[in-house]
Amino acid sequence: MTFVEKINKVLDPYYALFITLGLFGTILISIYKFILSPTDLKVIVQNDDVDYPSEISKEFQSIYSKISPKDSTLIYNGTSVYNFLVTTTDVKTIHLENQSEKTLRGIKFKHINADAITAYIISSDFFNNEEEKKMYENLKYDKERGIIYLKETIDLPPKSSVKVKLWGSFKKSLIDNDILISYEDGDAYFEKVFEVTGLKGYIVEYSFELLFILFIIFVITYHFGLRHAIRNITETPAEQSN
């Protein structure tokens, strides 16, 4: 018996295990590649409701009643602050991240179903002052149609990100499809963010380690189970009776 034949004889009982593991790994890789694999442009959206205490409105009205009617500037500023408090019911943070090693060009951004926008902040890890100013001017709001959009497309360098934070009032929808983001090579990937605590949080945090432990347990169980089965098959009737 040659050396290769000896190896094949030793490994022969484990071929079923190898085929099962290979098939399982192929399925996981296929699912990740064709279903779960993100594109180069990742987007994370965070929605928060704004709920001001009722005392703020009462205090503001008390102060506003003491303002002199002749002070038009103070009246205008006070009215602007009051309208902001009344109109702002939502805060939305939109984080765009280039995960690739190349520059993503022609990024388009559109947010529909926006009833009002009262303030916004745009920040990035690669903007200089002039570029940030242009970005502010590039963000537009169509009040009649309730659409927030970029007037001109932007480019995002490798491993960089842009964060847009919006204050205003936005329609609620069961399907989170109010934000449309695309670039020259395709559409953005929207990553869902969930917060879990307790046992579920522990499982999520150490999911890779737990899967590895389960894999080791499976291999060890298969190995000893196979040895036990082979020993029972090869035993003589006399040995089994003893």
Plain-language structure description:
Keywords: Membrane, Transmembrane, Transmembrane helix. The chain crosses the membrane at residues 14-35, 206-225. The protein starts with a helix and ends with a helix. It has 8 helices and 11 strands. Strands 3, 5, 6, 7, 9 and 10 form a 6-stranded antiparallel β-sheet that branches. Strands 4-8-2-1-11 form a 5-stranded mixed β-sheet. It is α+β, with helices and mostly antiparallel strands. The protein folds into 2 domains: 3-36 and 197-227, no CATH class; 41-191, Immunoglobulin-like. A hairpin with a 2-residue loop joins strand 9 and strand 10 (186-187).
SSE topology sketch:
Elements: H1 3-11, H2 15-36, E1 41-49, H3 54-64, H4 72-87, E2 90-98, E3 104-111, E4 114-124, H5 129-138, E5 139-142, E6 147-150, E7 154-156, E8 161-170, E9 179-183, E10 186-187, E11 189-191, H6 198-205, H7 207-234, H8 237-241
Parallel strand pairs: 1-11
Antiparallel strand pairs: 1-2, 2-8, 3-6, 3-7, 3-9, 4-8, 5-6, 9-10
Specify the number of helices.
8
Bin the helical content: 40-55%
How is the biggest beta sheet arranged?
Answer: 6 strands, antiparallel
**How big a fraction of the residues is strand?**
25-35%
Output the CATH topology of the largest domain. Immunoglobulin-like
CATH architecture descriptor name of the largest domain: Sandwich
Q: Assign the CATH class of the largest domain.
A: Mainly Beta
Give the count of structural domains.
Answer: 2
Total strands: the figure is 11
* C-alpha termini separation: 34 Å
* Low-pLDDT regions: none
What is the radius of gyration? 31 Å
Q: How would you describe the shape?
A: elongated
Order of helices and strands: HHEHHEEEHEEEEEEEHHH
Overall average pLDDT = 79
Find the structural class using helix and strand composition: alpha+beta
Transmembrane segments: 14-35, 206-225
Keywords: Membrane, Transmembrane, Transmembrane helix
